[in-house]
């Protein structure tokens, strides 16, 4: 197959209009590279990159020495690509840039990698392909040689490893992959991820990441404006995930109440109490453990049938904590719980926090994106009254190549005061630019990955209205699923009422247990149904849906929809597949 160049903008006709190119363009680069290569390899490289072989002022092709016809390259049709000119089994990483005269080999190798990636991307969206080629761990260990060795592997072996890795990877972009909160694949986000890896820099100072630091500043300000904070005032940071954002929130709340803890540690503060709902993310307790507060100091508040925190129980538990000598310092409300997708009543919780002078945080890692939807943002009414939000998250709903999480803080300067250490080898005070853009000192990490560009570029490509449309579509699909199964034979909803988010929680009851009169026996059998159906899904590779117990409820399916490739037909397929795989249970 003819290869598309890295700089091709117009497909097969990309090289037609080339008269205005300057010496700084890829064409000129290719010509310069071609002059260094013998045997016609340079001209073949130009053809491979689709930037043309003729340029005004270039030596005519007729003056080139005759070339020996290359062997077949494996393309499906006649082409002038140069794959056959490079034998990867004879090459190693040391033959690639920055090695001398390695430009052509590097570009051909990377083009080969791109071909592998493109084939995988196209296959991932094909409903006729498997979501997963499942193998048990011991089988997969034996399928390929995954061991690390002392001697270097050839580039041919490296390419084999790339293909094998993707062969057994989960196709998270597949329209019938519903297993996690973040599914699907956005092409612009993917391009941004590639660019970020190519830039290969860090986020601790402006001097090493000028554009990325500015994009983070612009994006965080825009998000604070969407929350409703005046003029987008406040602070924030991109973090590796929602768990870290929640720990940041707890860290800041403790510092706000007891700033001396930064230097003197927990021995100088009274025993603290944090509050969160029974259905909140486990990272709240994990953060308390990491910060030395202790998991026993995290008090779980009761929820109603739909999974929303009960404000009256929150106030009761705050008073109980105070009476036992604990100091309430932190309440984490949830906008979109992991399992039920429930939104805690933020206005009522905010009133209680204000009454007892407790810091309020909103964990919006799953549901915060609804702020971008005019139809659904009412579910977060009151979010503008709290001190922190992690996170109004378009990316989990809208398929960044990996989750991009943020912490947004209303009080400007608090993160800097809490976390800075003034490392002079990075944060010199006599630099020649505005030091407020050296954001690394307000982060817990020193090296911080560039996550901003994925979200920023996707936002540029879609616009806010594009994010809104995808969010609304996902909620429409979840409502379609709910309406289709709520009265369907063999299905029971875990809780009554239309789902608040895209989470649809249900049991499938195979014919063999639908009419069991012994409730305990029925419950025992039902607990085993979802795991068996899920295992069969993975072995057949047809679809993937998560399951779990919750409290006293036995295993049930938790269907979440965040994949923009999913359609009504995919929802119908899921229902039919569950019934097919569970019919004999």
UniProtKB/TrEMBL annotation:
Protein keywords: Cell membrane, Cell projection, Cytoplasmic vesicle, Decarboxylase, Golgi apparatus, Lipoprotein, Lyase, Membrane, Palmitate, Pyridoxal phosphate, Synapse
Pfam families, per the entry: Pyridoxal_deC
GO MF annotation list: glutamate decarboxylase activity; pyridoxal phosphate binding
GO CC aspect terms: cytoplasmic vesicle; cytosol; Golgi membrane; presynaptic membrane
Subcellular location: Cytoplasm, Cytosol; Cytoplasmic vesicle; Golgi apparatus membrane; Presynaptic cell membrane
Keyword Protease: no
Subunit structure, interactors included: Homodimer.
Record protein name field: Glutamate decarboxylase 2
UniProt source species: Dissostichus eleginoides (Patagonian toothfish)
Source taxonomy: Eukaryota, Metazoa, Chordata, Craniata, Vertebrata
């Amino acid at each position: 197959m003819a290869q598309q160049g890295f700089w091709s903008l117009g497909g097969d006709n990309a090289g037609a209009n080339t008269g205005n190119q300057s010496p700084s363009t890829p064409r000129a680069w290719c010509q310069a590279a071609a002059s260094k290569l013998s045997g016609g390899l340079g001209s073949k490289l130009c053809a491979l990159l689709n930037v043309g072989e003729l340029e005004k002022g270039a030596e005519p092709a007729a003056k080139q020495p005759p070339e020996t016809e290359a062997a077949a390259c494996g393309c499906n049709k006649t082409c002038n690509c140069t794959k056959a000119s490079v034998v990867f089994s004879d090459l190693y990483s040391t033959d690639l840039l920055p090695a001398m005269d390695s430009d052509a080999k590097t570009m051909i190798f990377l083009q080969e990698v791109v071909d592998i990636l493109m084939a995988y991307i196209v296959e991932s969206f094909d409903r006729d392909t498997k979501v997963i080629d499942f193998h048990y761990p011991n089988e997969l260990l034996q399928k390929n040689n995954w061991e690390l060795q002392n001697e270097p592997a050839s580039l041919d072996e490296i390419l084999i490893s790339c293909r094998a890795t993707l062969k057994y990877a989960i196709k998270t972009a597949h329209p019938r992959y519903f297993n996690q909160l973040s599914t699907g694949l956005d092409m612009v986000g993917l391009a941004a991820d590639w660019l970020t890896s190519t830039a290969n820099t860090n986020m601790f100072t402006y001097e090493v990441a000028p554009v990325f630091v500015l994009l983070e500043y612009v994006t965080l300000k825009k998000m604070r404006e969407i929350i409703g904070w005046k003029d987008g005032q406040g602070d924030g940071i991109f973090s590796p995930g929602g768990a870290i954002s929640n720990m940041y929130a707890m860290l800041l709340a403790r510092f706000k109440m007891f700033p001396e803890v930064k230097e003197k540690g927990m021995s100088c503060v009274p025993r603290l109490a944090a509050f969160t709902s029974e259905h909140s993310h486990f990272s709240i307790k994990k953060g308390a453990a990491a910060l030395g507060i202790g998991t026993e100091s995290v008090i779980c508040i009761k929820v109603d049938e739909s999974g929303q925190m009960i404000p009256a129980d929150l106030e009761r538990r705050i008073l109980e904590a105070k009476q036992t000598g604990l100091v309430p310092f932190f309440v984490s409300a949830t906008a979109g719980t992991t399992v039920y997708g429930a939104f805690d009543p933020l206005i009522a919780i905010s009133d209680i926090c204000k009454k007892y002078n407790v810091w309020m945080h909103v964990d919006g890692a799953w549901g915060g994106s609804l702020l971008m939807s005019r139809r659904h943002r009412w579910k977060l009414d009151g979010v503008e009254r709290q001190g922190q939000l992690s996170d109004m998250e378009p990316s989990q709903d809208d398929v960044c190549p990996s989750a991009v999480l943020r912490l947004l803080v209303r009080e400007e300067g608090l993160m800097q005061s809490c976390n800075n250490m003034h490392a002079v080898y990075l944060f010199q005070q006599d630099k020649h630019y505005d030091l407020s853009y050296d954001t690394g000192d307000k982060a817990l990490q020193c090296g911080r990955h560039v996550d901003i560009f994925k979200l920023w570029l996707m936002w540029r490509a879609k616009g806010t209205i594009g994010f809104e449309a995808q969010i609304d579509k996902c909620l429409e699909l979840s409502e379609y699923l709910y309406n289709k199964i709520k009265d369907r034979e063999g299905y029971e909803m875990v809780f009554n009422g239309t789902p608040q988010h895209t989470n649809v929680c249900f049991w499938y009851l195979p014919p063999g247990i639908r009419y069991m009169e012994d409730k305990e026996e029925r419950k025992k059998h039902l607990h085993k149904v979802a795991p068996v159906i899920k295992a069969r899904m993975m072995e057949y590779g047809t679809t993937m849906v998560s399951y779990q117990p919750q409290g006293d409820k036995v295993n049930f399916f938790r269907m979440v929809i965040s994949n923009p490739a999913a359609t009504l037909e995919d929802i119908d397929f899921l229902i039919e597949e569950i019934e097919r795989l569970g019919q004999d249970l």
